[in-house]
Description:
Blueprint: E1 3-8, H1 15-33, H2 39-54, E2 58-65, E3 70-80, E4 87-96, H3 105-119, E5 125-127, H4 134-142
Parallel strand pairs: 4-5
Antiparallel strand pairs: 1-2, 2-3, 3-4
Amino acid sequence: MKAYVKQLNNKGNNEEGIKEIIELWNENAMETAECELDENDRMAVQDQLEQFIQSKYGTVFVVMNEFQHIVAYAIASIKKDLVSDMLYGQIDEVYVTEKYRRKKVAQNLVDHLITWLNQEEITAIHVYVDLDNKLALEFWEKSGFDREFFVLSNN
């Protein structure tokens, strides 16, 4: 099972890759939220991906298998803290298809995101994790992230 990481950029045609990511995003939604993306959701995801690919404040990495199909993706962005005026990185999404899990694919993607953020001179990086997702919490803690605070929600 061979796979390689690729950063999507605004120099090539990303239309097919974006379509594949949207399908994987839908798989992720079905796994984690037990719902499918509707057409409006799909269009919003497409817009977000296109913006991240074209902006210097966002990035999209994918993992391609030997058949040139995307089997994982990761997205990060650079944000500005409104209080401190400091720039920080945010890992927005990481998803790996079931067949490629537990093969260091997610860690490889995270390493690429961190390298990209460090090249942009970003050292503080945040990631949001559902507290009920024990596997994700364990993964991020093993990846060097610490629990800092809890966000409470009424829904």
